[in-house]
Amino acid sequence: MKICYFGGYRADYARSHTQILALERAGHTVIECRVHPKVKTIAKIVSLSPMFWKSCRDCELIIVAEFNQSLVPLAWFLSRLTGAALVFDPAISYYDEMVITQNVASPHSLRGQYLKILDDISFRFADCVVWYMPADCDYFETLFPSLRGKQAWSPPAIDEQIFTVLPPKPRGDQFVVHFNSSYLPTHGVDVILHAAQLLQDDAEIIFDLVGRGPTYESTVALAASLNLRNVIFRDSILPSELPQAYSNADVCLGAMRDDAKLARLVELKIISAMASGRPVIAADSPLKRLFFKPDHDIVLVSPSEPLALATAIRKLKADPAWAARIAQAAPHTARRYFSLDQVSRNFTQILSNVLQKRRGIVV
Question: Do 303 and 348 have their domain in common?
């Protein structure tokens, strides 16, 4: 298939980057029709329209990249001019994220209604909307009935050009707990800080918190109020720099918040660390238990419970042999479900089904 990857997105953003890698792994031709995500919508339209017509008008499929709800109508128009099928990989619903999860707008406010309409229009225009996990399909269909019969799911993929199994870290004077975050409320960094407070009696345990985002300043303020001496805050790093952070880590963490959104996710940070051969502690959920075996390839703890997290960290530190067994098993599980080959097969099947349906309509 010849595919146009369309929208305002970063070349190094994990979702679009690994989806493109997976499609190319399957032998498809992918042409990126891309502008910077910070460009205003009208400027995106002005730039993308001639770019598409010059390079992509013979593409069989258009995939609109994450967070590009405002560009789906343009992509729909172009797809109808050329006969291409249109797939939207939104990553989030803006209404769900801003109104339901972060509570920054009321459902009945003008902003809340605008976000719901923006999502709904983009979902209606797409021939297929692709989410991360099967639970997303059920959840979003309750919010947007227009999605019925036009959803699929494609899990996050490991960038195998970056994340390979690392040598075991030699035990040293410090036991490093690594967490990479964009500081969204769902990540529950406050839970990690309260766990760090419980572990201050062990001077060897150090928390390495990497990233920036909406809750960063309040997180730093919380660390100061708790008088934490075992937490290091570092700026965001590139995905290509994560293996170095993993190589210095004894254990890596997933998001820790107890909320409905996290319960529907297997975070990329989890599978990337597992693929790198590091023990991972993550918030427990029924979804994660579909993929992982607790205490064999991952450690799962009750979400939003600092004591449970602190206890798991102490156990891994006290039992290096157990930690090593988890680290050894983790890459096999991560690649079984989230390798580029696995994701490419799944995504190719989704796109083939959409294309066949679209061709049936066109013919």
Answer: no
